[in-house]
Amino acid sequence: MSVRMHGTNIHPGTVSARGSLVGKGLVTFVAGVTMVGPFLADWNATHLFNPLWPPHARFHGAQTMLLGLGLGACALGFTWWRGQDAGPRPRTGMLFASLYWLAQLGSIAFPGTAFVDPERAGTGQVLGIPAQVVLSAVLLGLLCAASLLERRRAVS
User: Fold this and answer.
1) Which of 74, 106, 108, 128 could form a disulfide with 96 if both were Cys (CB 3.0 to 4.6 A apart)?
2) Are 153 and 19 a contacting pair, CB within 8 Å?
3) What is the distance of C-alpha 55 from the center of its chain?
4) Type and span of the H or E element at 43
């Protein structure tokens, strides 16, 4: 018995089948963090309810949270959507899952930005590295692993 996944026949229990499911699992994990993480990090007194933030800054905070929710949902949809033309869907799911974290890493390059507000300087670090950088690097690394598993599956 074989299962048709992404345009190829995959036999259950084979390395390709396991690799495909592990890759999808990694993308699903990153998509979940992308959907929920911004709400956990920003729905509090240091961000969205910070009395020092003007309304327009809160607008952008809310926009960022909703963007994470939408990108994560798109990643899940493209990763798990079944249909006739599955071709680039896994890679498209990975792209959606990566965009939020790539944007987070790139945001520090803009003038006047910081990883934390001045009153929280020196906090939010892992081994002296800003937590946002560590989290982004870990999640993007998981997506790279998923991509390698998908590439290996596509070749076999």
Assistant:
1) 74
2) yes
3) 27
4) none
pTM of the model: 0.83
Per-residue pLDDT of the chain (156 residues; tens, 9 = 90+): 444 444 444 445 555 556 688 999 999 999 999 999 999 999 999 999 999 999 999 999 999 999 999 999 999 999 998 876 666 788 899 999 999 999 999 999 999 999 988 888 888 899 999 999 999 999 999 999 999 998 887 666
Which residue, 110, 105, 75, is CA-closest to 92? 75
Residues paired with 155 in a beta bridge: none
Single out the residue of 99, 83, 80, 79 nearest to residue 147, CA to CA. 79
Distance CA 70, CA 73 (A): 5
Neighbours of 49 (CB within 10 A): 12
User: Which secondary structure element, helix H or strand E, spans residue 148, and what is its range?
Assistant: helix 131-155
Residue 74's closest CA among 10, 30, 9?
30
Q: Tell me the C-alpha to C-alpha distance, in Å, between residue 20 and each of 13, 15, 74, 147.
A: 11, 8, 19, 10
